[in-house]
C-alpha cells in the first residue's frame, strides 16, 4: 500500500512539473498499455502462432488421408482452423476461402491503428510541450531583464524538455510492440495462403506457393 501511495505521489509530481501535456501523454500510455494487453490475450485465445495442428492436417491431406486431416483441423487451436476445415470438407471456391481468412486476420489487426496513433502523437505532444515551456522560460527571462537568474532559466528549460522525453518514452515501446504484433499477423497471413492453396491443390510444393497466387490475401 505504501508503494502505491509513493507511486501516486511521484506521478502527480511528474504531472505538476510537466503540466497538462505530460498528463495527456501519461493518459495515452495507459490507453496503449491496455490495448497491448488486450491484443496479447486475444492472440493467445485465438491460437496465433500455434500452427502445428494445421500443418499436420495439410500434410495428411497431401498424403490422401482426408479424414485424418479433418480430424486434425478440428483439434487445432488456431483461428485459421475453420478456413482449412471449409476447404477440406467442401472444396469451397478460392475467393470465398480468402475472404474468410481475411475476415479472421482483420480481427487480429483491430487496435493497430490506435497504437499507431499513440506512437505518432506522443512525441508530437512532447515537442509541443517543450515549445510551450521554452516560450514561458524566455518570456520570464525577458521580464526579468538584467536581473535574470541563470539557474531559474535552466530549471525552466529542463522542465520543458521533460515533455519531449516523456513523449519519446511512450512512443518508442509502443512502436516496437506494434511492429512485433504486425509481424505476427504477417506470419498468419502467409500461413492462410499456404493452407488455402495446399487444400485446393494437394501436394503443391512451397516453391509453387511462393509465386503469385490469384486472390492472394492483401495486407490491409
Summarize the structure.
With 220 residues, the protein is mainly alpha-helical.
Structural class: mainly alpha
Q: What pattern of helices and strands is seen along the backbone?
A: HHHHHHHHH
Outline the low-pLDDT stretches: 205-215
Q: Indicate the proportion of strand residues.
A: under 5%
Shape: rod-shaped
The helix count comes to 9
Count of domains: 1
Average pLDDT number: 82
Helix content: over 70%
Structural summary, described in words:
With 220 residues, this protein is mainly alpha-helical. It has one domain. Helices cover 80% and strands 0% of the residues. It has nine helices and no strands. The longest helix is centred in the C-terminal third of the chain and has 51 residues.
SSE blueprint:
Layout: H1 2-18, H2 20-45, H3 52-62, H4 66-75, H5 81-90, H6 94-108, H7 112-144, H8 150-200, H9 206-209
Helix pairs in contact: 1-2, 2-7, 2-8, 3-4, 4-5, 5-6, 5-8, 6-8, 7-8
Keywords for this entry:
rod-shaped, 9 helices, 80% helix, mainly alpha
Amino acid at each position: 500500500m505504501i508503494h502505491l501511495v509513493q507511486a501516486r505521489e511521484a506521478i502527480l509530481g511528474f504531472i505538476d512539473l510537466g503540466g497538462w501535456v505530460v498528463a495527456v501523454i501519461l493518459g495515452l500510455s495507459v490507453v496503449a498499455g491496455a490495448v497491448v494487453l488486450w491484443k496479447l490475450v486475444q492472440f493467445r485465445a485465438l491460437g496465433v502462432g500455434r500452427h502445428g495442428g494445421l500443418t499436420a492436417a495439410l500434410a495428411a491431406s497431401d498424403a490422401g488421408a482426408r479424414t485424418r486431416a479433418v480430424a486434425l483441423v478440428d483439434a487445432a487451436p488456431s483461428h485459421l482452423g475453420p478456413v482449412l476445415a471449409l476447404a477440406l470438407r467442401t472444396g469451397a471456391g478460392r475467393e470465398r476461402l480468402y475472404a474468410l481468412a481475411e475476415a479472421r486476420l482483420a480481427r487480429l489487426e483491430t487496435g493497430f491503428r490506435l497504437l499507431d496513433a499513440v506512437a505518432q502523437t506522443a512525441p508530437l505532444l512532447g515537442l509541443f510541450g517543450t515549445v510551450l515551456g521554452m516560450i514561458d522560460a524566455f518570456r520570464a527571462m525577458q521580464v526579468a531583464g538584467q536581473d535574470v537568474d541563470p539557474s531559474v532559466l535552466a530549471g525552466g528549460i529542463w522542465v520543458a524538455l521533460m515533455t519531449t522525453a516523456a513523449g519519446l518514452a511512450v512512443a518508442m515501446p509502443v512502436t516496437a510492440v506494434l511492429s512485433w504484433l504486425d509481424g505476427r499477423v504477417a506470419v498468419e497471413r502467409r500461413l492462410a495462403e499456404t493452407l488455402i492453396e495446399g487444400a485446393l491443390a494437394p501436394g503443391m510444393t512451397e516453391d509453387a506457393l511462393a509465386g503469385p497466387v490469384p486472390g492472394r490475401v492483401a495486407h490491409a
